[in-house]
Specification:
Layout: H1 16-67, E1 76-77, H2 81-90, E2 117-119, E3 130-135, E4 146-147, E5 153-154, E6 165-170
Antiparallel strand pairs: 1-2, 2-3, 3-6, 4-5
Length: about 170
């Protein structure tokens, strides 16, 4: 298009600065959305962990009601063959033992190890008590811990107000 007065041709479109501003705004919005969905995924996995542990605890209590003891096991983790042994014992009470949604290897009481751990051996009365240990991605609430038959107190998450590692179970009866 020509200007009547000057004869120069005007171009329509965006300048480089305008395009860079738009790209920067889109980048900021994308990073905010990504951070929000990542936080949501962590919370969702933590909610599933709580639900999984509740299901395992219910199956263990049903087992105890029928047998008078809990399955005796020494650190059966959801990432090793001991979990299959626990699954066999609990099969009448739970279809399949859950695994952590972000399953890793190692012990559940070590940082960034996302596995479920079960223990019910020794400490005064094998099978008379049990503990489940699992880890959250977001620290929330205290680790209530569990006491064995001989009085040993297990609390792998420590005594802080907000912990990621949780120790739950049934204290000695």
């Amino acid at each position: 298009m020509y200007s009547k007065n000057t004869g120069y041709k005007f171009k329509s479109g965006f300048t480089l600065i305008e395009l860079l501003v738009v790209v920067a705004i889109i980048g900021v919005l994308a990073s905010v959305i990504l951070a929000m969905t990542s936080d949501g995924r962590m919370k969702s996995r933590d909610a599933r962990r709580h639900s999984d542990v509740k299901q395992i605890k219910n199956a263990l209590e049903l087992y105890y009601a029928d047998h008078g003891i809990y399955p005796i096991g020494s650190w059966w983790d959801s990432n090793n063959s001991g979990w299959n042994t626990l699954q066999t014992a609990l099969s009448p009470y739970i279809n399949s033992l859950p695994h952590d949604p972000k399953e890793t290897s190692g012990f559940p009481y070590l940082p960034a190890n996302y596995v479920y751990g079960y223990f019910s051996s020794g400490y005064g009365c094998p099978g008379g008590w049990y503990m489940l240990v699992y880890q959250l991605e977001t620290a929330k609430g205290i680790d209530s811990g569990v006491r064995s038959c001989d009085g040993t107190y297990f609390r792998y998450g420590g005594a802080g107000a907000n912990t990621t590692i949780k120790t739950v179970g049934s204290s000695a009866r």
